Amino acid sequence: MQYSAYFQEAVIALNYVQVDIELLREYCIQKPGAEECFPFDEHTLVFKVDGKIFLLASLDEHPLRVNVKCDPQKALELREQYAAVIPGYHMNKKHWNTVVVDGTIPRKEVLQMIDDSFNLVKKNKKKTSTKTG
Asked: Whole-model pTM?
């Protein structure tokens, strides 16, 4: 029984392993059609899909801060659930969240926010292409 409790604690601890810029970059760039660039300055890493931004990372902020697109209702829920999720800095606050990657949000949740952002941008691009095509 003692081993089981220890194992459960270890699994919980691993869920809170902090996401760093290297992990974030590897995770984003492996997405189909993703590209990275620095269109604003040398401190803001941007990831795009089909020419549309799905994540911005401020490289000179410690802890790391990223902006991700989010469904408006889900954005509000995440802000209520986590103090480290705030309205998107320099973005449409209805559709974007800034996530302070300080270890207080489970790693799986941070990666899910990135997935959701990517999928929202990809989906919106398909809608736009369908309307214009």
From this structure: 0.81
Element (H, E) at 69: strand 64-69
Q: Residue 4: how many CA atoms within 13 Å on its side-chain side? A: 1
Closest Cα to residue 19, out of 127, 129, 104? 104
- What phi and psi, each to the nearest 5 degrees, are found at residue 110? -60, -45
Given the DSSP bridges, would you call strands 64-69 and 52-58 parallel, antiparallel or unpaired?
antiparallel
Tokens linked to 71: 């469904």
Which residue has tokens 């990666």?
111
Give the C-alpha separation, 106 to 95, whole Å: 22
pLDDT in tens, 6-38: 555 555 545 555 688 999 999 999 999 999 999
What's the CA gap between 40 and 50, in Å, rounded? 18
How many whole angstroms separate alpha carbon 29 and alpha carbon 6? Answer: 35
The candidate with the shortest Cα–Cα distance to 30, out of 90, 102, 88, 114, is 114
User: Residue 6's pLDDT is what?
Assistant: 53
- Which of 99, 50, 106, 97 is closest to 71 using CA atoms? 97
